[in-house]
Amino acid sequence: MSEDIVQRVMANPKYKEMTRMRSTCGWVFSAIILVAYYVGFIGIIAFDKQLFAQSISGGAMTWGIPVGFGLMILIIALTGVYILIANSKFDEMERSLLNDVGVAHE
């Protein structure tokens, strides 16, 4: 892209809104994962490791296994949500922005 196009894109209010939304979305999802992992999972291991060592209904499986799988499912789900947002809202905003500054988008 030429320097002129870059300057027009960066000066457009839609660009500022799009970057703000992407940044906010990234920080919110990062905070959810950090809280779930460090405060939840690692915090429980640090302060009450016996909780995860307890057997589920007297069987061989402990609570740590489903909690760990739950954390992985949360991560995969949040990734899916971000992809949905990026493919719908962010791509739509990008197309609108490029149309505003007169750049053809393939």
Automatic annotation (TrEMBL):
UniProt superkingdom: Bacteria
GO CC field: plasma membrane
InterPro entries xrefs: DUF485 (IPR007436), Inner_membrane_assoc (IPR052959)
Any matching Pfam family: DUF485
Lineage of the organism: Bacteria, Pseudomonadati, Pseudomonadota, Betaproteobacteria, Burkholderiales
Transmembrane segments: 24-47, 67-85
Keywords: Membrane, Transmembrane, Transmembrane helix
Protein name: DUF485 domain-containing protein
Gene source species: Advenella kashmirensis
